[in-house]
Amino acid sequence: MAPARYRCAACGNLTRFDVVADRRTKSFHHYTIGGELEVEDEHVLSENVVEVTCRWCGNGRAVEQLEPSAGVSEG
Fold it and tell me: Is the separation of the CB atoms in 40 and 32 below 8 Å?
């Protein structure tokens, strides 16, 4: 599954957003002999986006999720 793309209808931002999400993952935790943790082979089991806020103007109500087929040109 591709990550969601967003657009702020208030200011036109397509690139900078603060995203708050609840995520459930399964991962392999590998501890070295020295006790250092290295997380490997992480898989997202479920993810629920709670809030998306535009980093440019701070608006959260005007952020729209773009359709995956919507070709967005940045430039």
Answer: no
pTM above threshold 0.90: no
Give the distance between the most distant pair of CA atoms in the chain. 52
| 14 exposure class (CB count in 10 Å sphere: 0-12, 13-18, 19+) | middle
Sequence ranges of the domains in the chain: 6-65
**Is-contact 20 6, C-beta < 8 A?**
no
Give the DSSP letter string of 35-71: --EEEEEEEEEEEEEEEEEETTT--STTEEEPPTT--
Rounded distance between C-alpha atoms, residue 58 and residue 69, angstroms = 26
pLDDT surpasses 70 at 16: yes
